[in-house]
Design a protein that fits this description.
InterPro entries: TPR-like_helical_dom_sf (IPR011990). The chain is an all-alpha fold and 286 residues long. It has a domain of 100 residues. It is 75% helix and 0% strand.
């Protein structure tokens, strides 16, 4: 309880800066090198939150806890633990509700759906993301509305609903603002390049050869510091090339995806790549 008396705006800013630093390291190095640090970071803030008094500082700290817990949940997903992902997002949602920030509530709720996707429960994931999007409505920035539609499109693609997925992708493009990053949404990385990657991913999952076009644009423009994202992108390209019957290109992309996934120790991406290779889609003549 004594430590909670030291809580002030500068300390909360320090916590938020630490979370931002973990995000950058996570996308470059992968979750395996950061998970313990992120969990300790969340635990430290949660301890302070439990003993802090009602007011603006507690509300701001709750927002910081929510964002950090969601990051820890995403890292757990990358390490192949959807159960832990779900639990960390439950913690994130609890803190988000206390923060009373519609953007944070919508983001952590929708992101939790990825635990369901990795458990092959796509229809439930669709329902959860739709709930988050509908609850947020027009109370959140356009950038987040674009992200919510794109996440919904991915879930719909996993649920094998191509028409609905295309509608969601079109809505994501419609809401994507033309400006740069939104400083009020430090947890979101979404631009036209990222959206092209997302669109290509959805189309690849649906077995549509046109996915190559979006993914080829994205792979040339994506910031190379997004190492894990690039691994996923190249895995999608391998799948899309195989649909076109371009097996040489598919094998090359699968090899590059495997190298990047190994570099970041991404269990999730390695599983995707192994399934692709075992299915024979990236092998010549298949």
């Amino acid at each position: 309880m004594t430590s909670s008396a030291a809580l002030d705006a500068s300390l909360i800013k320090l916590f938020e800066d630490q979370t931002s630093s973990f995000r950058v390291q996570d996308r470059q190095l992968g979750a395996s090198r950061l998970m313990q640090q992120t969990e300790a970071h969340v635990a430290q803030m949660t301890d302070l939150l439990e003993y802090s008094l009602p007011g603006a500082l507690r509300t701001a700290l709750a927002a910081a806890v929510a964002e950090a817990a969601a990051l820890a949940g995403w890292q757990a997903l990358d390490l192949g633990d959807p159960g832990k992902t779900w639990a960390m997002h439950e913690k994130a949602k609890s803190a988000a509700r206390e923060s009373e920030e519609p953007s944070i509530i919508a983001h952590v709720t929708a992101q939790q759906a990825y635990a369901l996707l990795d458990l092959d429960r796509a229809p439930e994931a669709v329902n959860l993301i739709q709930h988050a999007r509908q609850e947020a409505a027009d109370r959140v920035p356009s950038l987040l509305r674009s992200w919510l539609w794109a996440a919904e499109a991915e879930a719909l693609a996993s649920a094998r609903e191509p028409d609905a997925a295309r509608v969601a992708l079109d809505s994501a493009a419609q809401f994507l603002p033309s400006g740069g990053p939104d400083e009020t949404l430090p947890f979101l990385f979404l631009s036209d390049v990222h959206l092209a990657r997302w669109r290509g991913h959805c189309l690849a999952r649906l077995g549509m050869s046109e996915a190559v076009d979006d993914l080829s644009v994205a792979v040339k423009s994506l910031d190379p510091s997004f190492t894990r994202a690039t691994a996923g992108l190249r895995c999608d390209l391998a799948l899309a090339y195989s649909v076109r019957g371009q097996h040489h290109e598919a094998r090359a992309e699968a090899r590059m995806a495997d190298e990047l996934a190994t570099r970041t120790s991404s269990v999730r991406q390695r599983r995707r790549i192994n399934r692709l290779l075992q299915s024979g889609t990236a092998h010549s003549g298949r």
